[in-house]
Write a structure and sequence with these properties.
The protein is mainly beta. The protein contains no helices and 15 strands. The termini are far apart.
Amino acid sequence: SPVTFTSLTKIRIQNRDFILSVHEKGLSGINPENGKEEWFTPIGGIVEKVTTPTAWGEKILFAGIIYGCQLIEVDENRPRVLWKSDVLQPHHSDPVVIGNYLYGYSGESSQNRGTFKCLDLRSGKAVWETKKIGWGTLISMRRPVYCCRQLFARF
C-alpha cells in the first residue's frame, strides 16, 4: 500500500523490534530483519493527516486530525484498540509522551486554531488544556516539555 507523509518509527514489543508504517489502509508492524508485515490494524478513511505513531512502553499511540487518537496494544501479532478518544486531534505536530501522559497540539494547524493539551494515557481522558501558546511544535527533554512557535514555552 502507498505510504503517507508519516515517518517510519520503531518500537520493541514482547522482545521483538518492529518498524511502524502508516499507509492508506492503516498501521502495520514490519519485521526489520526481512521487511515482512507481521501485523496490521485498519484505521479507516484518509490516513495521510496523522502524526508519527508514538510508543508508550510496548503500546502504540496513533493520532490524527480526522481520527483523534487511539491506544493500540499488540499481543502475539494481534493488535487491539484499548481506547479511542477525540480529546487530542493533532494535525502536523507529533505529540510527546512523558510518563503516563501525552502532551500535544490539537486542532487545525494551518488555521492556527490549536489547543495544547495533556492526556492521561491510561484512560484517554484530558487532564488539562490551554490556548495561551498558539500553534507550534514541541520536544520533550524528559521533563519539561518545550513548545516552540515564536517563543519557547516550558511545561
